[in-house]
Amino acid sequence: MEFAYFPGCKIDYYLKQYGMSSRAVLSALGVELVDIEFNCCGYPIRHQSFQSSILLAARSIALAQKEKLDIITPCMCCFGHLKYAEQCLKENSSLKEETNSILSNEGLKWEGSIQIKHLLSVLFHNVGLETIRGQIQNPYHGLRVAVHYGCHALRPGNVVRFDNPLAPTLFENLVDVTGAESVDWARRLECCGNPLWEKNNSLSLKLMRKKLEDATQSGAKFLCTACTYCQIQFDTVQEAELLQGRGTDALPSILYPQLLGLSLGLDETALGLEYNKIDIRGIKNYL
Questions:
Q1: Which end of the chain is more exposed for a tag (fewer CB within 10 A), N or C?
Q2: Can you tell me the distance from the alpha carbon of 187 to that of 183, in angstroms, rounded to the nearest whole number?
């Protein structure tokens, strides 16, 4: 099973443990990743230049298409924008023609012949729960986890087609297969607040705190994320708040491939546990 690996711009520089743990887990489960020199997905400039954002996405898709490989990305924002661009190109023939005219200068062409998948989708649909279950070496015991989907995984539902946007279960099933228990919590589908960071910090922090309070009240010992920006919010931003004396009890946030990797028996160094800002190594007490 082979995929073109699209890490996005943030992971290698700000969240290296997400890339490390994703690669380690996928390798252990027989998924081969092919590295291509992709550009930015285009999302950061979507509201400054729509055409440029679509062009950036189309170029990356065309590069993978040239290798006849579907794309896998651990970044929910990249996943969401690549799917959005794909939908726009399918529905707007003039946009498609304009985009392909520019891509032709590099010998590229967007054709829409490959699939774009998030890490969780590949684990659930391509690898499968039974295959994962068969490779669990260290199941968790008594570990309650609050699953956080992230906005771009679910909305717009008719574009991303990741799961039921109002009542998703895919992520919970992937957590439960490790032996951990995914808890029910009221704010699980709400925004983490990171899109507002450095634009309206007070509102961003308010959204984050409400989610952390709700997850804690649900009995969760850890948050589990599969989104670059959500993890930065719940780990990096939460740690900064704690260091400044705003808040006393941390709710550690663990990336899903880290959670899964430990239960597969992978070494914590390969999963990058040391790079999490809020120490998550206590999770090994539940193995």
A1: N
A2: 11
